[in-house]
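Good morning N.,

You mentioned wanting to compare the apo and holo forms, so I went ahead and generated the holo version with D-glutamic acid. This is what I fed in:
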Amino acid sequence: MKIGLLDSGMGGLSVLHEAFHLLPDEEYIFYADVDHVPYGTKKPEEIISYTTDIVDFLIKQGSDVVIIACNTATSVAIEKLRKLYDIPIIGMEPAVKPAVHHSNSKRVLVMATPVTIRENKLKTLIDRVDTEHVCDLLPMPRLVSLAENEMYESHEAFDYIASELKPYDLSKYSELVLGCTHFNYFKPIYRKIFGDELEIIDGNNGTIRHLAEKCGLKIDRSEREIFYKNPEDVLKYPKVSYFASGRPITDEKMLTHIKTLHNRLEEVRSI
Ligand code: DGL
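and this is what came out, ligand included:
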């Protein structure tokens, strides 16, 4: 099966990386809209227009199913996309439900982009599942460019996250929901600031399992490591092609970027 994935940028690689683990025998097309990143501070109409063009493109490239590997695009565009296209369109939303379920009366911090936090989709989800009112919402827009620039180990990233978390009494939180696919790269920083007890929850594993269920695909349980040695290896396994705003990615610089990001995602996967 040919699976198309899209994101505003390289955050969606965290979803693709999980798909490589769980469904290594499928074929993938990954579209990063690098010309328009970030989406999380743009107007909904703009995001809807970009995403519709990308889904068109992915379908023309032969996708049998499309994953919107972006919480922001899902929150504003998923309903329209599902009306427009016949193929399954899988969306992503912050994993608030499992977080509330695991929280055991402690608090849940949901980090996402400003658009995701403003939109009704997240509000409706929280109204439905957060009956004890344990969720707090925190927009973290700067993490997107820090991830795009591979600055997940930088002082800037640490200081930004630490200063945004300063107003919170962190001992009250047992769950951190990563409501943006770009936020995965920073897991060691959250762990360092919150400590070992915190559960960090993203929607990646759940999204791929949902896709497998919907499309009748069998989950691979072999749990091997996925690290890339050379830039060109990222095009060799599993079967995948990468596009930057419609342009095929084949140059050494971008392949090295993708290699570095996949290797980072493998490193932080079990944190
Ligand atoms: N990675 C995206 C998300 O999951 C969007 C980030 C952005 O472009 O602002 O929300």
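The chain has a mean pLDDT of 97.

Happy to go through it together on a call whenever suits you.

Best,
F.
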